[in-house]
Amino acid sequence: xxxxxxxxxxxxxxxxxxxxxxxxxxxxxxxxxxxxxxxxxxxxxxxxxxxxxxxxxxxxxxxxxxxxxxxxxxxxxxxxxxxxxxxxxxxxxxxxxxxxxxxxxxxxxxxxxxxxxxxxxxxx
Length: 124
Hints:
rod-shaped, alpha+beta, Immunoglobulin-like, 3-stranded antiparallel beta sheet
């Protein structure tokens, strides 16, 4: 059973027992609230040896207080600048000049954030 349905059941119970609690529950049921984000994509990217960068795509999803996917404007960015690594429109490019052993992607929507650490694998 979904968390949203549980909240509605609680609202019905509190309708007679505690009307003030009912108002609080219904406020959360009526409008979803963004409570978390997740980032999906590769956990590691190989540093190339040639001039062609290696790329990987990353996406983010927003979740409501009930754990349901919801619409939200989400920005993806590198947490810190990393030599040889760039992020544009969800695509990370890793050039042969990359020397760090990892980088962090941060997703932001309003005040809610999520992070994903990505390892850089040295070419053999």
